[in-house]
Write a structure and sequence with these properties.
- The protein is an all-beta fold.
- A hairpin with a 4-residue loop joins β3 and β4.
- The N terminus is likely disordered.
Amino acid sequence: MDVYNFDGPNVEAFSCNKGDNQEWNWNSADETLRSQHNGECLTIEQEIEIWAAPLNGGSQAVLLLNRGSSGSEPVTVNWTTIGFPADHSATVRDLWARKDLGTFTGSFTSSNINFHSVMMLNITLNK
């Protein structure tokens, strides 16, 4: 995913295939990043950030980022945060480790992510 900031608080994120794009706006009142398309926000919790973008076929690319300056901690992605129903299961794959992590219902909690580190996932809703 390519991310650009051309004007003020707007960020444009383009999928790898340069097809669809989404524009995000920073809301300084509640300090959330909201989609200009549907007004939904991404989760930003103190030093933990969860970024998501739809992929062809309906799965989600999800980036878990620990912006902390020390230590490590697990990060939980709730399905509702990425647009999936909470009562459905999904298969989670670690893209960088090239490893399937399993099938989870409602959410996924990562192993500890070190400070200044990320985990990149592909989450596919099971039909």
